[in-house]
Amino acid sequence: MRSKATNILQTGVLLTGIIYIVIGLLYGFSPIYFANIFGIEVNPDWYNLIKYDTFIAPLYHFSRIFALLLAVVGISMLLPLFDPLKYRGMIYYHSILFPLVSVPSLLINGITYDHLPLTICGSLLFVLFLFVGFGLIITRKYAKMGQE
After folding, report:
1. How far is it, in rounded angstroms, from Cα 83 to Cα 9?
2. Which of 22, 24, 18, 15 is nearest to 133 (CA)?
3. Helices 56-76 and 4-29, packing angle to 10 deg
4. Hey, how many other C-beta atoms are within 10 angstroms of the C-beta on 10?
5. What CA–CA distance (Å, rounded) separates 85 from 6?
6. How remote is the C-alpha of 56 from its chain's centroid?
7. Residue pLDDT, tens place only, 41-74
8. Angle at Cα 67 formed by Cα 122 and Cα 80, nearest 5°?
9. Model confidence, pTM
């Protein structure tokens, strides 16, 4: 039987996975649709213009690939749901370390340049960081004893 503390941690892990999957798939498959969600109007000819730009075209395609990588990381967050003790390191890397290094950039640039998508994603990752961090702290004692 799992403790309530473990259930809190697993809720954070599940939310992290869902958010990573949604953001990754939305942006990875259609950056234009992703922009439209935030009210950013993108000219349909924009994609035709970037095809031949030697800087923007690779940047565009790399960003889509990394968005899909985020979706795959979100899918991998299903593993800690079944064995949170065994995959505790994965939780630290994907739910603590990744937001720790990405949130400052997202929030600073989002607020400085008034970009709503950056600010929302940064805030969302910060909330996940706090929630999962809290779950890791309250389950630390159980983890040291080898229990879930």
Report:
1. 12
2. 15
3. 150
4. 20
5. 9
6. 23
7. 888 788 788 888 899 899 999 999 999 999 999 9
8. 80
9. 0.90
